[in-house]
Specification:
alpha/beta; 38% helix; elongated; 12 helices
Length: 400
């Protein structure tokens, strides 16, 4: 006996795939209304992603009009097409007309092998709702959860790339370097931000002698560079440096293996955040510097709209979108990460703002009202404390 999953198509992608992630099915039927969303292009994307990941046959069936009678007829047509199969309807999301029609269908069509359940996307659980309850343990083990890149595609975007490809792959051998850089600079974010804006002379890579050169354009850059160089030399990151009226020239110590940490002011905080998140063991995917295409169509032109996410995580079936700010949190930063989480993760995407300095009370309150997770004053948190703050964040979401 084959198992048929009937999904009431919803505009939120995670509600369309959660049952498929929790149980094995042979056929997936999306039930929607004629001449309504999803359009043919979106249907092709959905079919390609789901079939490519699971091998499940994906079919779209339509009710001829948006009425209970038409929805009832659509369920009847499926029952007639699959009389010997176990059909399971996921009533999470979708149009309420279909749910009302399903109740009528189950009461009038005696003997049909139909059941229905609700699913909890965040917890990853199913609850039997009506009809013939599906036997426990039926079917085979479900496939691995959809990866972050597929989730983004289902919401209409696309992952262009990240650095590194996956954070866990470099976590162990870069742990010491990440902590060393962060601990050297965490209490001087203003100076570090200014320093990283100083222009390079010949690019970010050292010359044949290992020297990196930067040219001053503002008077205060000399003072800033002196402060930063003293700190990095004391920590064994910079081997030597020279400051003139126009230039800074310095060489990194051979042990400073992660050059990218010394280029962008936010990178140290991003990597520290990724390290803390990955070390909790709660997330199945961790990425930094994730470049996303807004509409999923990657064009060759430089005008193609993109966004960069500092850190992204997959907690079970739910994506987290983290913005790291090496300064105080502001309301503008809150709006920015809220917008990106909504665009790329729908109503289940979790927006998080991480700031190195303490947030003011009004910003804390605004974050709470906007349902944005805020972890601030990270400059005062040890790795253990930062990890604990992330775990607490997860627990708070689970309670809500």
């Amino acid at each position: 006996m084959k198992k048929v999953l009937i999904e009431l198509y919803d505009s939120d992608a995670l509600e369309n795939i959660i049952s498929l992630e929790l149980r094995h099915y042979d056929i997936l039927i999306f039930l929607c209304f004629k001449n309504s969303d999803p359009d043919p292009k979106k249907r092709a994307v959905i079919k390609g992603i789901i079939s490519g990941h699971t091998g499940v046959e994906v079919i779209f069936e339509e009710a001829n009009e948006k009425t209970i009678d038409a929805a009832f007829d659509a369920f009847s047509a499926i029952a007639d097409k699959y009389p010997e199969e176990l059909c399971v309807v996921d009533i999470t999301g979708g149009d309420e007309i279909f749910i009302a029609a399903l109740g009528r269908f189950l009461s009038e069509r005696n003997g049909v092998n139909f059941s229905a359940h609700k699913s909890d996307v965040f917890k990853g659980t199913l609850t039997w709702a009506m009809g013939v309850k599906e036997p426990e343990g039926s079917g085979v083990t479900p496939p691995a959860p959809f990866p972050f890149s597929d989730i983004i595609k289902l919401y209409g975007g696309a992952v262009i790339g990240s650095w590194p490809d996956e954070f866990s792959s470099i976590m162990d051998n870069k742990r010491y370097e990440i902590l060393r850089v962060w601990n050297a600079l965490k209490d001087m974010p203003a100076d570090w931000n200014k320093f990283c804006s100083i222009s390079y002379v010949n690019g970010v890579e050292p010359d044949e002698n290992g020297v990196i050169s930067r040219k001053f354009s503002k008077e205060n850059e000399i003072v800033t560079s002196e402060r930063i160089m003293q700190r990095l030399k004391k920590r064994g990151i910079v081997k030597s440096y020279q400051i003139s009226s126009n230039y800074l020239r310095y060489t990194l110590h051979p042990s400073a293996r992660t050059d990218d940490l010394y280029i962008s002011s936010g990178t140290a905080l991003e990597m520290y955040t990724a390290l803390a998140a990955a070390s909790t063991g709660l997330f199945r995917e961790v990425y930094t510097k994730v470049l996303l295409d807004c509409d999923g169509i990657i064009a060759r032109s430089g005008s193609d709209p993109t966004n960069e996410l500092d850190v992204t995580l997959m907690y079970g079936y739910v994506p987290f979108f983290i913005s790291c700010k090496n300064t105080e949190a502001t309301k503008e930063f809150l709006y920015e990460i809220r917008t990106m989480a909504d665009h790329y993760g729908g109503k289940y995407g979790i927006p998080v703002l991480v700031s190195s300095k303490p947030a003011f009370g009004p910003v804390r309150e605004r974050a709470k009202e906007m349902h944005i997770m805020l972890i601030d004053d990270v400059q005062s948190l040890s790795l253990k404390e930062f990890r604990a703050a992330i775990i607490k964040m997860i627990r708070n979401i689970e309670i809500d």
